[in-house]
Specification:
The complex is a heterodimer of chains A (about 200) and B (about 300). Chain A is α+β, with helices and mostly antiparallel strands. Chain A has one domain (about 10-15, about 20-195): Glutaredoxin (3-Layer(aba) Sandwich). Chain A is about 30% helix and about 20% strand. Chain A has 7 helices and 9 strands, in the order αββαβααβαβαβββαβ. The two termini of chain A are about 25 Å apart. Chain B has 2 helices and 22 strands. In chain B, strand 1 (about 40) and strand 2 (about 45-50) form a beta hairpin. By secondary structure, chain B is mainly beta. Classes of the chains: A alpha+beta (about 200), B mainly beta (about 300). At the A-B interface, strand 9 of A face strand 10 and strand 11 of B.
């Protein structure tokens, strides 16, 4: 049922050429492709979503990270932000790069999280960390908005309050989506993500 | 910086026990531990308020130490640039007319996790120092209450937010002698990063590379502070690779943006051949990247 991620040529190149620059792959970069399986066994291919003309939001996810709890349980930031744009050709995907044995790993734990948090989008499993490393994701959550052109339009934090409880006054992803949906570019295309570390394999 | 935060736990009203010098109020979820200063445990961390003076003296400075004792395997975060985590915060409530200074942060240590994740953290124990100026008109003979809400994020294999409320009641007197913690607080103060002494290091910017040389040093590390602005949070291209090295030279590649590099602010850690370690404040102003010769006139 589950299948390891197929790293396509662009993804592999991004991985090879990755120079640690910021805390995540920067705006303007081509979004590395992926084909990952969600907790229900469905495949999600970035290339396919882009071919369908969708705008794609990626959220690096770990159900056991307090900052994910902040935005999924204490506040419903992610689902609320998605709800406002889901009828406008926007796909939202959570990606979990926790390695086996690490916090938040596995289909079962994440299926439970989808239910517990009432999530309106799937959690894709990336246990090898290949997708996470291709995107240079270091935090849960790290957010990416990928335009219809396949380029990263926004990379960074969901909002501007990095505490584990208090919601920020500015939702950077909502602002970036509004700009991209209007055919423009976000005023703020890059911020420093905040949160837990992504739990890659040792 | 002191700031208001919404409490995450419902407050349990604990009746205050009146002890002449020190009082402790614990937030729900914390366990009480015996000891001289107000203290509380939440999760992997015990917080305690130390003072250097036995009493508050009108118009004078009080020195506070926020001690975090961190269980083995866990860490707290420094206030500078890290890939993950958030630093602890202290929100103080002081009597009218009292003024709090900023938190003073000891030098952190580097913590690298799989996936090239670089954090600057504290393990074991850290004491953040803070001075408070007592109001000049604080009434002598009474008691003054210092109330603090502490919030922190502790991480191990997973992360857990923690919080506590500490209350210290101090007599207001004309003179104050030192507490048993005064010497420890002085030592911590003396070990804080100091201004970089003239002549200790040669700091040179060539194009986009900042070289830092300290002759005779056995190891150098640089811990970046936020240089301000939403896009200047990461002045270094590769802090993981560049900002720690054996020997007396660091070569820091700087991010270029709009034809400019820097500013670079942070802490320079220097370990000399005899094993002695010191930390210094290092500040390099923003500079234009010189145009290459063929672009020049």
């Amino acid at each position: 049922m589950r299948r390891a991620m197929i790293l396509t040529l662009s993804g592999a190149l991004a991985l090879l050429l990755a120079v640690p620059a910021l805390a995540a792959l920067a705006p303007g970069a081509k979004a590395p492709d992926f084909d990952l399986v969600d907790t229900a066994g469905n495949h999600h291919s970035l290339q396919k979503y882009l071919a369908d003309g969708q705008i794609v939001v990626l959220e690096w996810f770990n159900p056991d990270c307090p900052f994910i709890v902040k935005h999924h349980k204490l506040h419903r930031t992610m689902d609320t932000t998605f709800a406002a744009v889901k009828d406008q050709g926007v796909v939202w995907l959570a990606v979990n790069s926790s390695a086996p044995g690490k916090s938040g790993h596995g289909a079962e734990r994440n299926a439970k999280a989808v239910e517990e948090y009432g999530m309106t989008f799937p959690v894709l499993l990336d246990p090898t960390g290949a997708a996470g490393m291709a995107y240079e994701a270091r935090n849960t959550p790290t957010m990416f908005v990928i335009g219809r052109d396949g380029l990263i339009a926004y990379a960074g934090a969901i909002d501007d309050d990095k505490s584990p409880q208090v919601l920020g006054g500015t939702n950077h992803v909502a602002a970036a989506l509004a700009a991209v949906l209007a055919g423009g570019k976000p005023d703020v295309a890059e911020t420093k993500p905040y949160g837990c570390s992504v739990k890659y394999a040792d | 910086m002191p700031r208001l935060r919404q409490p995450v736990v419902p407050h349990l009203l604990v009746p205050l026990v009146h002890v002449p010098l020190l009082l402790v109020l614990l937030a729900c979820g914390c366990a009480r531990e015996a000891g001289p200063g107000p203290r509380a445990r939440d999760g992997a961390v015990v917080v305690e308020l130390l003072t250097a003076e036995k009493a508050a003296v009108p118009g004078r400075i009080l020195t506070l130490g926020w001690r975090f004792r961190i269980d083995a395997g866990w860490h707290l975060y420094w206030h500078g640039v890290s890939d993950t985590g958030v630093p602890p915060s202290v929100a103080l409530t002081l009597p009218a007319g009292w003024e709090a200074g900023p938190l003073r942060w000891p030098a952190p240590s580097r913590h690298v996790s799989p996936g090239d994740i670089l954090d600057h953290v504290y393990v074991g124990e850290v004491v953040l120092l803070q001075t408070v100026r007592v109001a000049a008109d604080a009434p002598l003979g009474g008691f003054a209450e210092i109330r603090a809400r502490l919030d922190w994020l502790a991480c191990s294999q997973n992360c857990a937010p923690g919080s506590a409320e500490l209350v210290l009641s101090l007599p207001v007197e004309r003179h104050a002698g030192p507490t048993p913690d005064a010497d420890a607080i002085t030592r911590i103060y003396q070990s804080l990063p100091q201004p970089l002494p003239e002549g200790l290091a040669t700091v040179a910017l060539t194009g986009t590379e900042l070289s830092v040389a300290v002759p005779g040093a056995e190891r150098l590390e640089f811990y970046p502070l936020d240089s301000g602005g939403p896009l200047l949070f990461a002045p270094l291209v590769a802090p993981l690779a560049d900002a720690a090295a054996a020997g007396g030279t660091l070569r820091l590649r700087l991010r270029e943006r709009d034809g400019q590099v820097g500013p670079v602010r942070g802490i320079l850690y220097v370990r000399s051949g005899d094993g002695a370690a010191r930390s210094y404040e290092m500040n390099v102003a923003a500079a234009p990247v010189a145009a290459s010769p063929k672009e020049g006139p």
